[in-house]
Amino acid sequence: MSGRPISRRRAMGVAAAGAASVAGGTAGWLWSANSAGGGFRPAATAAPLREPRVLSSRGGRLQVELAAAAGVALAGRDTEALGYNGSSPGPTLRVRPGDDLAVRLINGLAEPTNLHTHGLRVSPQGNGDNPFLRIEPGTSFDYLFRIPRDHPTGTFWYHPHRHGLVADQVFGGLGGALLVDDGPDLPVEQDRVLLVTDTTMTVDGVVARPDRMERMQGREGELVLVNGQHQPTLGAAPGTAQRWRVINGCASRVLALRLAGHELDLVARDGAFLPAPESQQRVVLPPGSRADVLVRPTTPGRFPLLSEPVDRGGMGMGGMGGGVRSERVLLATLMAGGPEAKPAPLPPALPAEQPRATTDGKRREVAFTMGMGTAGMSLGIDGRAFDPDRTDQLVRFGTVEEWTVVNTTPMTHPFHLHVWPFVVLATSDNAPLSGTPQDVVLVPPQGWVRLRIPFTAYPGRSVFHCHILDHEDAGMMATIQVR
């Protein structure tokens, strides 16, 4: 399916409209001596967290234009990074169950792109959440996402998904939050979006190109940002609570969140509420995953929000490469001060979804695989690289299946399935289980996870893949047809 031609002036005009508010927020920021890799020096560090522009539905519909183009501000500097409507992240889209989300995607890039509403349970067919669409440079395409009336409320996001170009475009800065409202009233003073991205910039503000080994390992950027800002601060009064919707929008990086001096009260994961809040010292988020946490400072002070080191394994084949271990990164700082408030108690229960408890369809096994060929190392699923014209898994609509996802490689791979969320039943490393639907799960090196997947919401054709986006682009993706 092809898009409609647009003028360059039209694309740049839409992008400029979004950029105006971003530029206004950077006025007066001072240059910092704090550098972050590649010779790139953020102009602003530790500024108050800014929320992306919010576009909300009215009367059951949200109609927006998203213009993807280069040339946005990151960390207080003008760069050649990518964004939607002149900013990275793009605008936050807020809808409600039963709404129509109509998006005109305008491609102002020099290469094809498309749009994926990550985690939304919407049709994968036609102009819905269709990963096979190719929107050419200089054209636009009209998407229509019909959100069902029983759609869960929570935190989702959008990003490009054109095979072969996904990692470059997400690493370049394309992504934005997508929130489904009408959830429970939580005892919070503020509801914040924290969209975490990483990239590597040259001294001139150009997104660095990874080498072959970085692509095989899954690139991790030297500059880690929250809402496009470098190590921002979040203010709060002791005794109050905030809801932080943390989105891992990184191309490969696994986030291991820890807030100094605090437990994180996890209330939702991947857009699905838990049965009750769970207090955790550390919350691990694979690429593409989300966590909603309640943060409740009790004393004044400065409390860093860190992503702790994560070992993602190594290449381990043919003597190529070593281990991939993320460094400890400061994401943001909680600044607690001012008059103390009386703490509100946590809700004793949350509106968790009750997933199907039985399997009435097939039991399948799929495998992340790695091999050596004449062209070097290859990545795939079940020993085959992605082919959009091939159907890899044929599923009968209306059934609930049990899948075992096996990882035959020495690296961790996050498994992601579009459209149809799953419940994790067991893992080879005995990771804690939420019992609620999710759409991304880490599969340990040389390990496995077992999933229950209801294919009951929509028929259609889509994909499942490794959400280390370099691996997806290299072929670690497969097709699924539900009919």
From TrEMBL:
Keywords: Metal-binding, Oxidoreductase
Domain Plastocyanin-like, first and last residues per copy: 76-182, 220-305, 374-482
A Pfam short name: Cu-oxidase_2
InterPro entries: Cu-oxidase-like_N (IPR011707), Cu-oxidase_2nd (IPR001117), Cu-oxidase_C (IPR011706), Cu-oxidase_fam (IPR045087), Cu_oxidase_Cu_BS (IPR002355), Cupredoxin (IPR008972), TAT_signal (IPR006311)
Region ranges (Disordered): 340-361
Top-level taxon in the UniProt lineage: Bacteria
Single GO molecular function: oxidoreductase activity
Protein name (database record): Multicopper oxidase domain-containing protein
